[in-house]
Amino acid sequence: MAEETENTEETTDEATAEEPTAEEPTAAAETAGPGPEGGQAPEAAQPEPKKKKKRLPRAQRPQRTRPKREPSATRKPISREAKPEHERGRRQERRGVVVSDAMDKTIVVKVDAVRSHPKYKKVIRRSIKFHAHDEQNAAHVGDIVRIVETRPLSKTKNWRLVEVVEAAK
Fold first, then answer.
1. Cα–Cα distances in Å, from 133 out to 28, 29, 69, 99, 126?
2. Residue 6, SS3?
3. With pLDDT > 90 as the criterion, what percentage of the chain qualifies?
4. Residue 141 domain-assigned (yes or no)
5. Taking the complete model, does pTM exceed 0.70, yes or no?
6. Structural domains counted in the chain
7. Is 40 a member of any domain?
């Protein structure tokens, strides 16, 4: 019977702890603001605004140290390999018809590009004119020539005549 009385006391203590008393205002009443009596809630109960994190100057920022590498006791000698003997880069080659040879040591070569349109599959012919260097003035109008890309020789000349494939009739 003594155990039953202890259990009943515990249940009554728990029930009274959960119920708010008239003397203690509830947390909901504090956050709701002024009640019908016109009383203000205490300032300490209101949440403080969040503090903004301001950037620190670089000198005041925490320094991160990187792990230091231990220098090796012996250093490897610098070895240079011989350069392979081949032409520099890969020069483009084009074939075209000489349109003009009026300038000294320069010819104008018209190169036709025939391509299929990617969407409509129609054959499109486009042509580009290149100024090419002709050292011996060997090419004449109507000749089919092979030209190769080279360093800039003037403002417009970036090509050089390699050979006359077919002379004009």
1. 92, 95, 56, 14, 23
2. helix
3. 44
4. yes
5. no
6. 1
7. no
Could you tell me if residue 148 is inside a domain? Answer: yes
**What CATH number corresponds to the domain at position 128?**
2.40.50.140
Could you give phi then psi for residue 155, rounded to 5 degrees? -65, -35
- Percentage of the chain surpassing pLDDT 70? 70
Residue 101: both structure tokens together: 């040879």
What's 97-159 look like in SS3? EEEECCCCCEEEEEEEEEEECCCCCCEEEEEEEEEEECCCCCCCCCCEEEEEECCCCCCCEEE
Query: 119: exposed, middle or buried (C-beta count within 10 Å: 0-12, 13-18, 19+)?
Result: exposed
List, in order, residues 6 or more apart from 108 with CB less than 8 Å away. Answer: 98, 99, 100, 101, 129, 130, 131, 132
Considering Cα of 44, then 25, then 36, then 33, what sign does the dihedral take? Answer: positive
Give me the domain span that covers residue 161: 93-166
**Is there a domain that residue 17 lies in?**
no
